[in-house]
Amino acid sequence: MTFRSGFACFVGRPNAGKSTLTNALVGQKVAITSDRPQTTRHTIRGILHREDAQLVIVDTPGLHRPRTLLGERLNALVKDTLTEVDVIGFCLPADQKVGPGDRFIAEQLEQLARDGRGTPVVAVVTKADLVPKGRLAEHLLAVSRLGEWADIVPVSAVGGYQVDTLADVLVGHLPEGPALYADGELTDEPEIVMVAELVREAALEGVHDELPHSLAVVVDEIVPRERTGDGPPLLDVRVNLFVERDSQKAIIIGKGGARLRDVGSQARRGIEALLGARVYLDLHVKVAKDWQRDPKQLGRLGF
Ligand SMILES: Nc1nc2c(ncn2[C@@H]2O[C@H](COP(=O)(O)OP(=O)(O)OP(=O)(O)O)[C@@H](O)[C@H]2O)c(=O)[nH]1
Ligand SMILES: [Mg+2]
Fold it and tell me: Where is this region: G2 (predicted)?
C-alpha cells in the first residue's frame, strides 16, 4: 500500500466554515469557531491520521480586503501558507451567493497559478445543509464558473455530509511519503494558545459590530496549585482580554460583571477538558488603544 502525506490548506472569506471543517476532518476541536468574522487569526495545523495517509490541514484566517494593519498581516500570512502546501481547499459557503469576496480570493489563487506554482485547488462548497438541493446545484454551477478547480466538493461539517469524500479528494493530491507527525497527535497548537483561544471563543458569543475585531486574548500564566490530598490537580489560569476602547471594556464585563462571569464559566469547561485538570480561571479586561493599527502593540499581542 502506498502511504501519502502532506499539507492541505483551507482558504476562504471570513465565516466560510474553514475552522469547523478542519475540526470535522480531524475529529476533534483544534480550532475555535464562531459566527463572527475573523475568528481565526493565525494558522492552525490539524492532523488527520488514516491507514493510507496523513493529511495535515492548515486552517487559515479568512482572506478579505484588509482595512487595518492586523488585516494586512493576516492576509500576508495566508498568502505565505498558500505557497507551502500540496493542495488548497477554497471554501465557499453554500448559503451565500458567490460574491466580490470570493472573486477577490479567486484572483489571488489565479495569481498564484500564474507565478508558476502548480498547486491544485479544490473548491469546497461548505454548509451544504443550509440550502435545498436545487440551490446547492445552482451554487455548484456558479462556483465552477469562478475559476479552474481540480475538483468541486459540497460538504457539511455540521451534518457530516461528504467530509470523508473531501478527505479522499485532498489525500489524492498528496505526494507519497512517510507520516510527518506522531500517531495520535492532532494539532501543533500549543496548549497556552488553545487556552487563550477558548477564552476568545467564549467572549465572542453575543458581541457585535467592531467588538469581535477589537478583542485579543493573551494567557498571562498557568500555575499549578499546591496539591492537598488525592483530588485532581488544580491550575490557576490568568488571562488578559484586550479591547480597544473603554466602552468595549464595559460591554465585555457586563452589568455587575455578569457577562464576564458567563464567559469565564463557558471557557473554563473547555479549558478543563483540554488540560485534564480543574481550573481556577481569572479573567482581566484591559484597554490597548487601537491595537489593530499599531505595529508595536500588534507585536506584543503576537501578530
Ligand atoms: N449549518 C452549518 N453551519 C456551519 C457549517 N460549518 C460552519 N458553520 C457555522 O459557520 C460559522 C463560521 O464557521 P467557522 O468555522 O468559524 O468559519 P471560518 O471560515 O473558520 O471563519 P474565520 O476564521 O472567521 O475566517 C459558525 O457559526 C459555524 O458554526 C456547516 O457545515 N453547516
Ligand atoms: Mg476560522
Answer: 38-42
* Amino acid 67: pLDDT: 85
3-state secondary structure of 65: coil
The pLDDT of 116-133, averaged and rounded, is 94
What is the domain-level CATH number for residue 279? 3.30.300.20
Number of domains in the chain: 2
Has 19 been labeled as part of a binding site? yes
The answer to whether residues 255 and 111 belong to one domain is: no
The secondary structure of residue 161, as a DSSP letter, is B
Distance CA 5, CA 178 (A): 6
* Residue where a domain terminates, one of 117, 141, 172: 172
Query: Residue 280 falls within a domain, yes or no?
Result: yes
Query: 153 and 73, same structural domain?
Result: yes
Is 2 flagged in the annotation as binding?
no
The alpha carbon of 163 and the centre of ligand 1 are apart by a number of angstroms equal to 14
pLDDT at position 232 is 79
Tens-digit pLDDT profile for residues 93-111:
999 999 999 999 999 899 8
Q: What is the pLDDT of residue 257?
A: 96
Numbers of helices and strands, H then E, in the chain? 10, 9
Given a cut of 80, whether residue 45 has pLDDT beyond it is yes
248-293 per-position pLDDT tens digit: 999 999 999 999 999 999 999 999 999 999 999 999 999 999 999 9
Q: Please tell me the predicted confidence (pLDDT) of residue 74.
A: 87
Residue nearest to atom 10 of ligand 1 (CA): 17
Closest among 201, 238, 273, 215 to 44, alpha carbons compared = 201
Is 183 part of a structural domain of the chain?
no
To the question of whether residue 75 is assigned a binding role by annotation, the answer is no
Name the nearest CA neighbour of 170 among 53, 43, 42, 19: 53
Can you tell me the distance from the alpha carbon of 31 to that of 12, in angstroms, rounded to the nearest whole number? Answer: 15
pLDDT at residue 226, as a whole number: 84
Provide the residue range defining the domain that includes 203.
Answer: 191-300
Report the CATH number at residue 152. Answer: 3.40.50.300
Number of the ligand 1 atom closest to the C-alpha atom of 161:
31
Ligand 1 first shell, C-beta below 6 A: 12, 14-20, 33-35, 37-40, 61-62, 126-127, 129-130, 156-158
